[in-house]
Amino acid sequence: MIRIRDLRKIYGKTPALSIAQLEIGKGEMFGLVGNNGAGKTTMFRLILDLIAATDGEVWIKSMPVQKQEEWKMITGSYLDEGFLIDYLSPSEYLSFVGGLHGWTTDDYSRFYLSLEGFCADELLHGKKPIRSLSQGNKNKIGIIAALMGNPEIVILDEPFAHLDPSSQIILKRLLKKINSERGTTLLISSHDLTHVTEVCNRIVLLEDGLILKDLQTAGGTLGELEAYFARA
Amino acid sequence: MSGSSLFRSLVAQQWKQSTRSAYYEKGILMKIFISLMILYLAINLVVVGLFMGKILEGAFPDDDPAWAFSLILFYYFLADIILRFFLQPLPVLGIVPYLHLPVKRSALFNFLLLKSGLSLFNYFPLLILLPFTLRSVLPAWGGLYSLNWLAAVLLLIFSNNYLAFLLKKIYPGRLWIMPLLLLAAISLLVTDFKTHQAISGLFASTLTSIAAHTYLLLLPLIFLLILYLASWILLYKNRYLELTTKKERMLFSGNDSSLLASFGIPGKLALMEIKLILRNNRPRSFLMLSGMFLFYGLLIYPPHSRSAGEGMFLFVGLLITGIFMMQYGQLIMSWESRSFDKIVTSPLRMQDYFRGKFWFFFAANGISFLLTLPYVFYGYHIVLINLACFLYQSGINSFIILFLGTYNTKRIDLGKGAMFNYEGTSFIHFLLFLPLLGLPYLIWLPFSLLGYPTLGVAAIGLTGVAGLLFSQVFIRITVKQFNSRKYKILNGFRTS
Question: Between chains, do B487 and A88 touch, taking CB under 8 Å as contact?
């Protein structure tokens, strides 16, 4: 689904990311962990063609992201507030994104139903602009927008940050459901090791822009990761 | 922390805030340009001040210049309070980060109020006042009188500062206060004129009496202190309100299944653009400014303004049909800088994005053109000229602006005020008006020189139509240009 080859990003002289080879298969639940500055967001930005790679290439479904833009039609993403249009109300923003997918009224109601209460109706239909929402609610709107239009790939940077406990639990369930029902490929980064080991079946650990570990999640994975971070 | 050292660090932080703001990060050319503009304005005011005595002698031959000037000051103060009410920003921001620190609240309030005294509004009248006092008051009345007079005027200027503050604080966001204030000012003026300047005359006599008797300076001083105290108390009373986020107005929050949305992707993008403009200060002020430009024709078109010929009409036509596009459009994409990551990762081809922008420009120019139709009153040829200008603006200039828009890499904070805000603007943006308005003249001039100015206008219109016919090609060129600059733009929008 996603293929990375000889990908490098260098800021000035400091290498931010260097990945010789990485393949993420269809339907994989891919988790990315690492301390601040390890290169998680850089990697996501490179996959989404938001920053120029120093060298190397990324393919989404055999489409080179730097040269084509068809991959945008099957990829949903939310990295940070830069993905929100903050002078719109949540419903205006979501209907703009849905509109780009050519959605009809039916599509919206079916979609909102499928969210299983991740987002309260008051928030969805509130009259406040996104810029005056709390951080947690901003994140929710961004995540919801990323899930619109049945994307084949969903990329989320720190989706659990700022969410209240109930929403975290619902989100985990939601992501697993989307993955099992539609075979959606998920890419998630998180500082919360419990969440990420719970959701993802593959976890990659970055340190200083390099892949340090590439694990299939098993019983001992959480312990292994905790041991690594306790050492660092 | 002792009072004075607290004050010093507050001032230092304020200084850092302003020197680290976007203004100082601008290019050197832009700085020089703005400085020159300010210098030009300042010189103008000084010259007016120097010749004010002469002007007043002409207008009020029987009266003393100090008295006559005081009379004028009455109207100035009236206008000043209204201008301040609309334009002067409230100095509210910036105390929230201090409220939880071990800092006396009263010190913060004093700082806030004194800071508002530093507003430029309070000092630019000095550019007129000082030369006038030196040249016209000092020789006639002597030093003490001049000093008293100047002090009284300054005290009133600062009083106005806090009066505006009070008005704004008491009625924050109450829209009805604006017409009420205007109405009060107008009725005051009308009464004044009806009574042969009884009110303004009283004001002028008071001011000159204060100048003659130093102890009377207590009057304006007490007035100022009362206003300062009232402002202080108001701040104290509202000390918790400062913390709550103010309710935002959401203009144009109609439903999205409106007519526009049925125009496919360009329609949806245009809808967003309209919301962006209406809900954010700076683009909204561009819109209002463009609205005012529509009246520019009234100065030029009437038959009694003889200097105006076809060439001038062309200039007006280009300006009023395209001023919004030329101003707002120059910062195209920068407006969306805060959410540009979303735009380039959305299921939206850049081809469609730029097509949407193009149609938005077309519609904006078209609406401007329609609004100029009443000028048919001054002759149908004016409408034809404006039509040609509209076609040219939409067919040629729109693409120049879109193409060059890819050189915008500065992030814009939409929430900030519009007055004197040059964030995201560079010297190039001012320079760009030359080709935008000049190129059509190059088309028109040969025809005009040969004696066929009307054919020249037709040529401009036809060039525009040709541009519209080739819009697909131009859009493709713009997309290519965008792709070559994509990472620079994204990086600039994200960080700068």
Answer: no
